[in-house]
Amino acid sequence: MSGHSKWHNIQGRKNAQDAKRGKVFQKLSREIYMAAKSGGPDPDGNPTLRMVIDKARSNNMPKDNIKRAIKKAEGGSEEHYDEITYEGYAPGGVAVFVEALTDNKNRTASDVRVAFTRNGGSLGATGSVAYMFDRKGYIVIDRSTTDADEDQMLLDVMDAGGDDLQTSDDAYEIYTDPKEFAAVRDALIKDGYKLADAELTMIPQNTTPVPADKKEQFEHLVDALEDNDDVQNVYTAAADED
């Protein structure tokens, strides 16, 4: 693993999205609906649904919203969303990978293209940047919620089947093979750890610093993509700020 740390960035993005909580819940409802529709409404028998529910809870989504999305899937709604990815470059040559759930591919493709071009980026072809990212399971444990030191944490992560542990002053960040993610998550919970975050994500193999004169454009591009109702996740290879 590179030294890329997600937790600092996740906290920053979540804080910035507090004012957009309704939009975040809408996107999570769409994910829950699709997971329940494709794999069944029982999270114990549907690992994808359980993962999305955990993600929703970490975003403080009300239980009633979660239940409504599952009931909608159970009720045989004809709504359908296609999973689509978009790839491109932000100002400064920073790779960007976008995941969307959409009921109108043409609309979403047009909106994503406009977001890139209006903010100094360029949309690329399928496969143009995907190879620069690795799909990983990602788990965070807030250090204030555990007495475990780094040595104990490392032993427990390895016993659980995790691939890598990164430690900062405020968090333990654990990376796993995507196929082992659920097993590692469950093992750590069984060991008594409280998880601050647990999700499947895309981790850049290498990072690129955003030039100072491109930072504002870069942030506007990410904001424009995240503001799109159809965009679920935006991953970039931007280097962490000090």
Short description, anyone?
With about 240 residues, this protein is an alpha+beta fold. It has eight helices and eight strands, in the order ααααββαββαββαβαβ. The protein folds into two domains: about 5-75, Orthogonal Bundle (Arc Repressor Mutant, subunit A); about 80-240, 2-Layer Sandwich (Alpha-Beta Plaits), CATH 3.30.70.980.
Can you offer a commentary on this structure?
This protein folds into two domains: 4-73, Integrase, N-terminal zinc-binding domain (Arc Repressor Mutant, subunit A, Orthogonal Bundle), CATH 1.10.10.200; 81-241, YebC, transcriptional regulation domain (Alpha-Beta Plaits, 2-Layer Sandwich), CATH 3.30.70. It has a four-stranded antiparallel β-sheet with strand order 3-1-2-8. A hairpin with a 3-residue loop joins strand 1 (82-90) and strand 2 (94-102). By secondary structure, the protein is of the alpha+beta class. Helix 2 runs antiparallel to helix 3 (47-58) and helix 2 packs parallel to helix 4 (63-74). The protein contains eight helices and eight strands; from the N terminus they run ααααββαββαββαβαβ. 33% of the residues are buried. It is globular, with a radius of gyration of 18 Å. GO terms for molecular function: DNA binding. It is found in: Cytoplasm.
